[in-house]
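Ribose ABC transporter, permease protein
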Amino acid sequence: MKIQTLSSLNIIAALALAFVIGAVLMWVSGYDPASSYYSMLVTPFSDRVYLLSALAFSAPIVLTGLTFALGLRTGLFNIGAEGQVYMGALGAVIAAYFARSLAALPLALAIGLALAVLWSAVPAVLKMWRGVNEVVSTIMMNWIAYWTVIMAVSTAFANPLQPEESVKTPEVARLTPLIPGTDFTVAVPVAYIVALLMYIFLKYSVWGYRISVSGLNPIAARSYGIKPERAVLAAFALGALTAGLAGVLQVVARPPSYSLMRNLANVYGIGFDGITAAMLGRGHPLGVVLASIFLGVMQEGARHMQIEAGTPFEFVRVVQGLIILLLAVQILRRP
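Tokens:
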């Protein structure tokens, strides 16, 4: 299987077709597509609070989008960000359970990132040593993470006062909104800065060069003394760091709960949204940021679409699923 970079025309065509198919499905289901799309894509720009909320939605998508984009750069179709987000969030919950002070914040980062990297090591080792397809192994690891974290949140780390969620991050360790009355926390600039650092790393560092060359042509990479296996390990590990960070921030920097919901509602799907963002952003870190903002607008707009047009929120997921499907068909091809 060969992974190719999409042109801007491919992406625009996929977006247009996804929205057209979505409109048809809305119309067949008895909803007004024009009103629904207006509420989804225009309303979020009508108020500062709406727009800042859309940016808050975009932050974790940027981080998981970088995970997938880094995999693409290395010639991998790594869809393991979802499970790594869960593990990062679990790390933040564990930190909140054991530390009821400011120390909970650095502890959350340390445990969350470590768990995410360890979780990514399984598919990385299977890929290198046994040639196991990363799509299969990461899907399995996602589901194992999902049920493992649900079990942990439902038992050992459950909130005795609110059993539908985990223990809360201590107030002193929370990253509260930078602008009162909004969801805009330091998580947003952190995500964008990480994307910028990733761009600099890939473009100007030695390891960034090795990763890119290994993905483009492993045979040529070996002739230059580059070991593609190490590039695969580096891509899995770095991708796990960004995905794990997304999970940590969803717990310590996402009002109002500052906890992990028992059904993982506040982290579920972030890894898959990152796949869409990476595809729309053509695997470029800065493109991922722009695509994530677009998806953040869609997610914020979905709430208005449900209220103003009466169209179920799930139609946004339908459109996003169509985008992934149409882009994946183009981005994956056999030699």
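The longest strand covers residues 2-3.
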